[in-house]
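User: Okay, second chain of the day. Same drill as before: sequence in, structure tokens out.
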Amino acid sequence: VQLQAFGGGLVQAGGSLRLSCAAARRTFSNNGVGWFRQAPGKEREFVAGISWRGGSLHYADSVKGRFTISRDNAKNTVYLQMNSVKPEDTAVYYCAAAASSFASTERNAYRYWGQGTVVTVSS
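Assistant: Same drill. Structure tokens below.
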């Protein structure tokens, strides 16, 4: 599965941004999908995950109540709606498809990774 994340950019603190993750060449409608992020000098961390039908969702504590993950399998796309963003949300955001249909918070559960999209939140 080849993934592409897009929608990043510069946003002011308190604003909103929506990231999209699209799959090319093959559907990922049967896979769990996750969003991860990596800030400069830090390790890549889990942000949100969604199971194949969207019935199971997971969020990092740092984004609960602000970010929403969703998917549209007909469009082969997963979204990350980011609201009330903070400067500490600044990072490169990656989407990834799991080897299974489940959502997972663990990085090693994800087999296919897209290139990142940069999100910068100004204070």
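Residues 31 and 101 are 4 Å apart (CA to CA).

User: Thanks, on to the next one.
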